[in-house]
Amino acid sequence: MNSKRKFTAVDLIPGKEYRVVVEFEDFDGLPHPIGEQWRFAGKNFLPYEDGLTLYIERGGRQLIFRMRWSKEAQADIIDNFSDFVEEL
């Protein structure tokens, strides 16, 4: 991955594979540890545009994780997602 290329969670490309490089928790408290790999399947904005649901595929299973705009830490994850995951 080009380290100069910055992207946000809304820029993730369906079908591309990503790896977590900085551990984080989603809004539901589910951990995403360093080294976790998944294929991005899509996104959907949460009601009232207060966050984002990301759909991923990991190990043949479809999973989701949610992020909220309202909490500063979560907003940082959404706004600077390239600090947390890298493209494979």
What do you see in this structure?
This protein has a 5-stranded antiparallel β-sheet with strand order 6-5-4-1-7, with helices on one face. A two-stranded antiparallel sheet has the order 2-3. With 88 residues, it is mainly beta. It is built from 1 helix and 7 strands. A hairpin with a 2-residue loop joins β5 and β6. The chain has one domain: SH3 type barrels (Roll), CATH 2.30.30.
The number of domains: 1
How many extended strands? 7
Q: State the CATH superfamily name.
A: mobile metagenome of vibrio cholerae. Integron cassette protein vch_cass4
Supply Rg: 12 Å
Unreliable stretches (pLDDT < 50, length at least 5) are none
Distance between the termini: 7 Å
Question: How much of the polypeptide forms β-strand, as a percent range?
Answer: 35-45%
| Biggest sheet overview | 5 strands, antiparallel
Query: What is the percent of helical residues?
Result: under 10%
Structural class, from secondary structure content? mainly beta
Shape-level CATH architecture: Roll
